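Chapter summary example.
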Amino acid sequence: MDEAIWHFIGLFRISEEAGRMRVDYDPMLGRLQDQQLDPIPTQDYVPVLLATKGDFEASFRNIVTPTLPAPTAEGVELSWIAPTAPMKVWSGGPWVSLPAGDSVASAAGAAAPVHWVLTPPGSVVAVILQQNALFDDDFLNPSEFGDALIPDTAILARLETLTEAAQALGVSLALELPEHESDFVAMAAQVQQASVEAMDAEAPAGAVVAQIHGEDTIGLHINGELAEERPEVDSLKPVYLRPQPEPEDDAAPDDGPAHEVVAGANVLVNQVALTASWISAPVLYVAGQSISHNLISQVNVVSDMDSIHVGGFGSGPVSGRIGGEGTTQSFNMASITVVSTSGTGTASTGHAGGGPIYAVATLDASLISLNWVDQRNFVSDNDVASLTLTGSETLLVTGANGVTSTISLLELGAQFDVIVVDGSMININAVLQTNVLLDDDRISVSGANGVSISSGDNLLVNDAVIYQSGAMQGGQLTQVQMQNLAHPPGTDLSLPAVTLQDPALAGLDVVRVLHITGDLVSMNVIRQTNILGDSDQIQLSLSEAQQAMGDAAHLSVVTGSNMLVNAATLAEFGVDATVHTGQGYYSDALLHQAELISTDDPLAPGAGALASEAVLFLADSMLGDDDPGGGDVTFGPMAAMTSVPADVMQTVLS
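The structure predicted for these 654 residues follows.
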């Protein structure tokens, strides 16, 4: 995991109080070569190759077992001929050890299945919360604006309105961390209900909403349309953020404009990569219900209403960009892929003694895999600058901030041949991605002989991938199957021979069985949120000396060129499976992609100090309950009239 804030230029104020554990390492005592270490015993799930090629010829699917004597009419206990060492059995999966002297019972007239015991797997839970909150509101000579200055409360109120609109546009899924293992069934029902409500809801005015349901979600969809391939994000980057091409050998170097002001160019990135090969089996018997649901919700909300004046604020606005680059781009990209791993074979006939062999791992609880990831980035970069440029060259950077959160998880488990679940089976994948951008700028330039203003050229990207290796199909448990699998509480599971003759178990001499007395749960919930307020007010003029320099007095202003990216990849690896359920099989998917481009009037002076809960929203929603100062540390944007240090260069340069 990684959290970072880079390239901060401006007046930086931060206060932090936190307690942390020191990382110390105990000194090495003694030398390793002098220590006598005991052999490390191998575990049941660690494969060990006992023979090399040439010692004997054997297939990995074959097993050498002693021949059982024929059962008598009365039925007696038959003992293995005690080997000189523990017997190792390899069935293409984990090693299973059978100690010397173990016994097996046989009934009259039939060969009894050999029943061995395995160690059950354990649950895995990962709860990760990453939050970045950055306030970079710079004020340079704000008094020069007078009544033309838009108050910060009005800007925060507009940002809060956009955030609320984004929440209303997405799938409303108010999931909370479960308190008990029995809560997962209700959570699965909540995901199903949220999907139904999202499909029934009407799109707000001005919003573009695309919903794709069921099997139609398979494939790649970009902004609601089926596509062949993803565009490269590097090719979509704002021009200012792209690497500059190397100049040719005979080309004169380009030093750029003489005067450059950068108040935008912020980068917010959330990344999650989750790969899981946890628990799988080709045959599952579930006494309760089976629920499988994939949900992707992607929302982009942007307001980019700019007011640009050349010749001063009194000269009237100029429509569009002046020599700048591009308009704001918004992409919602999502793909759901299910790959089959089916194979063929013939049914196993068991070992030489007659009955099939199976090993059972029993877990007297629910088996849970929970990955709960919540990433939030908030950046406030609302700059105010009123300057007269007198030098021959100027570089003023009040933006160009970056925050990123990155998570990479790899989870490995075990594979079985049969899974028996006394409760329900739940498989939920939910990816919720939101980008909110406020980039309403007011720019006034006078006295420049050449002007290039880029107040747009923003990029908002939501990218989600759900990849599942192993297709599932549902089936109903028959009355005979339910009777065969029934067992009194507290007793070991006993599988009849007919259950072990499933075609999916073809070629297996040892059947590995996992018995779960509770529920089998796999739930992955990923939330990613980027919120950026970049509403700049820039007033620039060149001195008479600079104006006299002609074409050399070129001025470039960048107040846009922001990039907000949410990227999540969720890959699950298993095998094709048939799920026999006693209370029904449910499988569904929903892809929800929404976009809202605000068409409200640009922010203008005279809006007044609007009453707003934006600051409270930032403190509660972004920082949560993890404030190390217990609430004593206050974060917030600088007031417009906050005094600037006497050392002006401290504010302008880093």
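To summarize the output: Residues 152-169 form the longest helix (18 residues).
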